[in-house]
Amino acid sequence: MWTMLYPILIIVASNIFYNICTKSTPNSVDPFASLSVTYLIAAVVSFSTFFISSKGKNIFTELEKTNWTTLVLGIVIVGLELGYIFAYRNGWSMNTASVTANITLAVALIIVSFVFYKETITAKQIAGIALCGGGLVLINL
Prior knowledge:
Blueprint: H1 2-24, H2 31-53, H3 59-64, H4 68-89, H5 94-117, H6 123-139
């Protein structure tokens, strides 16, 4: 049970602080300068954590195992951060921007998983999509 729960708790806690930090990013700072510092810190934390948690592994050997997904993930993470910074700077409130983005994402991922991964779409998911659509209308009125 714990192995299923703790990753979700990490995601939720991280997303709470993520949205607080993103909304609190000063309007006066260039978003790319801010993201550069953010990713420099993320690189230092990731690099340090690798050495703490991966005793006996060679960083260069591990880096050789990466593929195109590492590069693309880096690019899309910048897009994710930039999108939220722009959303908050353009007047979205925290309680609607994140919910709107996440509901839209969830619906899009149901479609992506069906088209590209041949996962099934159930009647419950279709009902959920309809409810999400209604919820988006209600929270954004």
